[in-house]
């Protein structure tokens, strides 16, 4: 309804929390606290109906969590030892798309390099935590999914293995990514950009 903001706040002692602020200027309030240094919430977003927010919680291992705004109860949606990132709620409120490295092949580039590259793919899961499935994509790295207005397609960025090191991690050097769309039911996809550079 355009009246409130939800965001991550870092307390003076270093705790990361989810807070709510009204746009009328009244003081912000913390909705949920996480005092474990390894449990860092980030990227809170609204559900389609505005009754729930969802966010990623974790550091070395990240899961997607959901908070009911009326009760302030939180629950872990994905429960997986791999990392789950960048959730996006479908327009009908039934599905959440996200990127995850749960099926990573632990690629190396070049092939004899010491460093294992992160490799993520796209997944969707029901808002209740059921119906998890992987969305097939063509490149090594797929991330930041967003839904089309009709809820039939996902928009995301993709990268080949040789670009992954340059677009992730603290020492970003740049690389080439493309924007793609994919039909979540048929798997039909289209690359909508071309050329070098990050999209």
Write the layout of secondary structure elements.
Elements: E1 4-10, E2 16-22, E3 29-34, E4 41-46, E5 52-58, E6 62-68, E7 74-76, E8 84-89, E9 95-100, E10 121-126, E11 133-135, E12 141-147, E13 153-159, H1 161-167, E14 178-183, E15 189-191
Question: Mind explaining what this structure looks like?
Answer:
With 199 residues, the protein is mostly beta strands. Helix content is 4%, strand content 44%. It is built from 1 helix and 15 strands, in the order E-E-E-E-E-E-E-E-E-E-E-E-E-H-E-E. The strands form 4 sheets. A 4-stranded antiparallel sheet has the order 4-5-6-7, with no helix packed on it. Strands 8-9-10-11 form a 4-stranded antiparallel sheet, with no helix packed on it. It has a 4-stranded antiparallel sheet with strand order 12-13-14-15. It is globular and about 50 Å long.
DSSP E strands, number: 15
Poorly predicted runs = none
Strand content: 35-45%
Give helix and strand order, one letter per element, not per position: EEEEEEEEEEEEEHEE
Mean pLDDT over the full residue set? 83
Strand order of the largest sheet: 4-5-6-7
* Rg on CA atoms, Å: 18 Å
Described by strand count, sense and barrel closure, the largest sheet is: 4 strands, antiparallel
* Structure classification: mainly beta
